[in-house]
Task: structure prediction
Amino acid sequence: MASSALSARRLVRIALTNWRLGPFVDDSELIVSELASNAVRHTHSHVIRVTVVWPDDTRVRIGVFDRSRTIPQLQYADRDHIRPNGRGLLMVDALSYRWGTDLYHWGKQVWADLRVEAPS
Result:
């Protein structure tokens, strides 16, 4: 699991650095780390795929594909209980301007979009 998240962070860092979007690397690495960790932890997929695309000048999309069709759900904090985990999507929700899930017949992609400014 740790190696999957490390590889995913490296991919995101390389892509954003090459696109001269360095100020967005830290948030992007946190997002992809959470998405990749969730895919490994909560699905029985032995393989995940990570994508980083810059579809227009205003956003970068980070996606993680796995073979499960289970849609992830935000788990809000419980006032009476402290949970040691389960807050990864809350972080993704806070750092991205939107996120979602695309279902396919073979699995899904969970993605997060970050607002970015094109380098001048």
